[in-house]
Amino acid sequence: MIEYVIKGGNKLIGTTYVSGSKNSSLPIIAACILNGKRNVLYNIPKINDVEVMLEILEKIGCDITREENRIIIDSKNINTTIIPKYLMEKLRASIIIVGALLSRFKNAEFSYPGGCNIGLRPIDLHINNLKKLGTTFYIKDNLIKCVREKEVSKRIYLEFPSVGATENLILSSVIGKEKVVLYNTAMEPEISDLCIFLNKMGANIEGIGTSTIIINGVNYLNETSYLVMPDRIEAGTLMAAVAITEGTAVIENINYHHMEKVIDKFIDIGCIIEKYDQKIRIISNNKLKSTNIETAPYPGFPTDMQPIFASVLSSCIGESIISEKIFEKRFDYTNELRKLGADIKIYDNKAIIEGKRSLRGATTVSKDLRGGAALVIAGLAAEGKTYVENIDYILRGYDNLDIKLNSLGANIIRKEITY
Question: Is 62 labeled as catalytic in the residue annotation?
């Protein structure tokens, strides 16, 4: 097991950068299955989730070459449509490979996916809507087989604007002769990034960036190269680290247009934000004050930023209220924040945070990706040393977070724990 040892109290000052988007890289990697050709991807983060996704592609027959932040994927020689169970269990996003396999090969075999335990995230929405596209599912115990028995033109209304379900439906509809119209789709920038990548391949997708996406099926796709967008959640995490330590930093490779609700909240608590071309400066030299947050699908405040902002609000003067509208178990991390002295009370889907100026170091355990990042942020402002154990969760989604924070003046040591 690996842990972070954080010595708090240092103001973060300087310049750092944001890596490529985790939530954009994963579906784009899956999309490389579609054309059976060679694709070159740039700005891919070095994170565990990406490594699992690449391993899945290798197991089904893709040839993969990695050179720093560039990945070459050749899917010409895929020889199976069975996704290994042990890899599905490691990665929630592995479910979107099903849509790509159905689009190209008309069948797939898989098990229920794993990932962070932040609440119920059933795959029923995926299965029920893929059925509407002519897919038959055979489910026995934990094994799911599916076959695309016919292609159908379809208008599908999503009961909830699920990111994963939207991606799966897009991937499964790209190749073919039919037209599929999706209503009430997720509008996250990562969905747009996937659609732009697919159109560069030769797909015919309209309505990008809206809640209605139109996919006109095509017979084949071309090989291509693509630069993945910056990670807006990593950008928000770095901003939170600067804010809580009362620092000043420039964060590069950032698309602030994707972060308007998050930036607004940093301004609300007293930070100064200066926007430049693909970078921002955040200045946190005032006493930070409380604010209220309600998570919502994009363009609302992202649920992934909720735990991270809770850490900052724990150091802001006054009472803050966070209302979580997406995942019902997203507040589990607050038990660990309380070990650092945070005053947080949970009532159903609300967290009431009584801010205080001082947190104290303690031993904590990361239990999910963003909750783990929240503990790191709190540790930067805590007196003494904070230990964040089980950082494998953090490494799933952050590319060298400790190195980037240390470049701004943080004191974080990555340490192997032996028992």
Answer: no
